[in-house]
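Supplementary Note 3. Input sequence used for the single-chain structure prediction.
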Amino acid sequence: MKAEPRTVLRFLLEYFDIIKDLFDTQTKDNIITYEVMNEITSKHKMDVKIQLLEYKIISNVAENYQFRPVFASLIEFILSEFKPMLPETIEKYHVSIGELFRKIRENINGDKVILNQRITELSNEINNFYESVEKNTLALLNETRELKANVKKVDYREKIIRASRWIDEYIIPLNKILDLNHSTSLTTKLYEVSEYTNRYRLNFDDESTRIQFEKLYFSLIQVNDNLLRQSKILTNELLPLIERIRTESIILTGWINFLKAPHKKKVPKILESKRNYIYSKDTFFNAAEFFDAFKNDVDVFIEDEEYEDEKWIFDKQLYKDKLKDNLPVTDFFKWCNKTLKEDYKKVEIEKFFALTSLAFDDDLQLEYPVKAEFDKIKINDLTLTVPKITINNHGIS
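The predicted structure, written as discrete structure tokens, is reproduced below.
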């Protein structure tokens, strides 16, 4: 008779301590022997073998016991105690995901019920693949940190072996699985699935299937982001940490072997340490000389320089009225030169150009000769060649 779900969950809660001890045993030895089962149940004074078998939490393996995979995964997840999986185990998802994807493409116009089920199973396989990668990363990270702390006092030679094994057998192959630039990687396959899914989530005749494609597409986006995060952990955190453990251990192992038999090898020269300063030894005397120069201060007064010449401001209206009084003007630039000489005795280039700006006024009407004519005007040491421009009476309103 099948047990009620609440009964099973209540049993897991009530007897979790004994279940954890059994799980730790299986994690260590891959099985729970009949003798160990009796020892653990005797220690906790609880004989729960019958309930464990009845609720299908464990199963018989000959005369021994083993957790069923679903409960083993549940306890492993709760305790966050994952064992590193070989990349070959994760690689199996390449086959299952590829096969489901092939079936979906080949039967896209077939039975809609089967098609929807395949899309759902493809989504589940993709999520299972990511969870496997995440578990592997966490497991490797935990074991690496534990090895770095060396709480269990592992010798340096064993540390080298473990670190090398993790790099060669776990991290490098796992990185290949996650490498988007690798044509046969699982990540490349997921990218292909994503492009296909995106096309059909937007354009498919059956609404239920279109919704399934929509769910799969957004699930793929999330998985992609999560895989990038795991890849960064592997590349930026885990690999350098393991490499550092291996390098340090190689150096220390070499020194230990040397110290055990120093007479077999010639003692290397130890470099004499020297202390160098970033500043000169004469800096103190140079600084003292510099400050001595300021002991006898002399009062210094700084006065602002006054300019006799006032800044000239162009009074446009004044000169426009003068131009109006002298109309018609047959040579505008000569008139500008003559006017400035009358007002200031000499012509300055700044004032000349300011006055010639009247030619651009919208109120003036300029006339040019049929054949271009030019005059030369001398302003101090500067000679300007200017066109001949005429302004008549009707040019000013």
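The chain has a mean pLDDT of 78. Residues 81 and 142 are 9 Å apart (CA to CA).
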